[in-house]
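Expect chain and fold; thus:
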Amino acid sequence: ILIDGVDGTGKTEVCKILSAHFMAPIIKMPNMKEYFQLGMTEEFSKLYNELVIQFKDTNFIQDRGFTSSIVYNRVYNRGANLDYLQRIENILKPKVFILTADNDILFQRRPKDEIIEDKYRTLLNHEFKMLADIKGYHLIDTSKLTVEEVCEEIIKRV
């Protein structure tokens, strides 16, 4: 199960609950803030995306994944070659859930992100929605749901 979406939608909280429910480990790329500040986000994202393949025969919950590479590459005009991502998706065959939220509610409910500027949140949220629509990923608006309700919805869809 891959959980992704704009920062502040409750991804990590959702992953923790799903991990306990499915008795599956969480996989998350560490130190994103550091990679972002070094300007090496895509290089480390590619390494991370490639490494996750080793768990293809195991059930796990992924807190962010190749879907973020697609969205952030587009929003920040990074120009990285992401052709390899389709191979990653084909190998993993994840159930992908994109969490979105109305930004006014998102800002009030969640801690402020230390990396993403506010002006990009709306655009990122929109891009995640578009990606879900194009790829047929599950889309869940967390604006009016508790974390537990989001998890219940994901469990129903799995």
